[in-house]
Design a protein that fits this description.
The chain contains three helices and eleven strands. It has 165 residues and is an alpha+beta fold.
Length: 165
């Protein structure tokens, strides 16, 4: 029977554009897992440090892009995928981060290139169906960032409170 895990997060970075929004796409470098693949910000939750999914999202975004976020959203459904190498089904909490028009990332060595793309174009460049679906949902939900649509819920990471209880 496969194991169930939830130790990875995904973050979709969105910025307003002239006629809609753009998503930041990052390309993995040679020598890394998934070399050449275009993807979003993502990474592991530091479970041993007691990190929550939303804390991992903030950390990973900062480590991989150094962008300042104006508003945070949680994506209302987790992404899922199966890895046959370890017979595990993963549930991935996903987030959207709205940054300023014209914002540009400073990428880490986890990626070799970056580009802003319209949601439909970004969805065509990824290798995973769950990521494609999230890109399209985020693009639709945040097409007008002042009036978020279905699929995302805004939250303020500075006012979440004590989650230890």
């Amino acid at each position: 029977m496969p194991r169930l895990r939830s130790n990875i997060v995904a973050v979709y970075i969105v910025r307003p554009a002239l006629d809609g929004v753009e998503l930041l796409m990052l390309q993995r470098p040679e020598g890394h897992r998934f070399a050449g693949a275009w993807q979003t910000v993502g990474g592991h939750i530091e479970e041993k440090q007691g990190e929550t999914a939303w804390q991992a999202a903030l950390r990973e975004l900062n480590e991989e892009t150094a962008l300042d976020v104006e508003r945070w959203f949680r994506i209302d459904r987790p992404e899922t995928f199966y890895n046959p190498e370890n017979d595990t089904i993963y549930f991935v909490p996903a987030f959207a981060a709205l940054v300023a028009t014209g914002a540009e990332p400073t990428i880490s060595d986890e990626h070799q290139a970056w580009r802003w793309q319209r949601p439909d174009d970004a969805a065509e460049t990824v290798d995973w169906a769950a990521m494609r679906d999230s890109i399209l949902m985020v693009g639709e939900a945040l097409a007008d960032p002042e009036h978020p649509g279905l699929g995302v819920t805004e939250f303020d990471p500075l006012n979440i409170g004590d989650l230890s209880q």
